[in-house]
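Data card: per-record layout.
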Amino acid sequence: MEIKEAKRHLQMVDVKTQYLKIKEEVDRGIQEVIDSCAFINGPAVKKFAKSLGTYLDAEYVIPCANGTDALQIALMAMGLKPGDEVIVPAFTYVATAEVIALLQLKPVMVDVDPESFNLSPEIVEEAITPLTKCIVPVNLYGQNSDLEGIMKLAEKHKIFVLEDNAQAIGSDYIFSDGTRKKSGTIGHIGSTSFYPSKNLGAYGDGGALYTNNRELGERMKMIANHGQSKKYVHNIIGCNSRLDSIQAAILDVKLKHLDAYCSARQEVADRYDLALINVEGLEIPKRMSYSTHVFHQYTLKVTNGKRDELKSYLASKGIPSMIYYPIPLYDQEAFKPFTEVTSLPITEKLCKQVLSLPIHTEMDLEDINYVIQHIKSFFKN
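The structure for this 381-residue chain is written out next.
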């Protein structure tokens, strides 16, 4: 079959085309902030926090400067002490473990489930010790961890759960009785990032925390604002982490489109699945029964040892791809003083196998078929 050239340059994420479709709404929101000159903690921030709380069914939403700050503020709110252990996957982005080390807590790096790429209750249970104070499941690539089981362990051992929900906002967790909750709202605290490439992305940096626990909600609100309960009254040591009003106005517009954005990503993923499921040497993403998948990334496992060759081949055809993540956290020089872990077999295997394909809200059938045809061509040769 002749492979047609893509009609435009393929991108991992097409933020510009997405913006052009909602330009009038976004520009109006930005202009309203400029006209008000309420650039910090203005009405736009409060409005977005309320909108996000309604969407998530979360009583407390605390916007902040970025997703890494969100993780740090959450851990600070838990009142953990230096040396306390925090269980974290070794297969994730650096920020998740970085804030643990920054607060002089001990990151206990563990392996992940090979199908979901996430923590499982079985893995977590083996890592719990008397010093364990928190578990940080990362809802990687757009799909929830097995949170029902993890929460049962947390309740049994009186441990906090902080959901790193930077990649899965908009997804649903499905409990064994069929009930659903939005990702990020199952643990004691959920955190997210609004980095521009995220499913709900700002046009700059931003993040948020959410919880239904009043004490944690009030503490996080204070911590994010210099530990201040009211002006010039500082009850606890905090930090300065704020979502600016312009970004809040943009996010409030984009939140209205989030479910549609998730559906668009799922449609792309469905087409990839259908076309690639029987390609020898590839494994398509596993969709777990307890979670919907919003496909922040569409991540294959290349099982024939030719992941890097495939990546180079796709690049030669103008198709971008990314490796999230190529190095286990415990192999990063920065974490050598903080962990005794030297090898986790599943993590190391995934680091050599995973490859994420272009997926975003603006991909059309021609783009998708172009990617599929070149992947099939590579594996036929």
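Known properties of this structure: The mean pLDDT is 96. Residues 258-276 form the longest helix (19 residues).

See the next section for split statistics.
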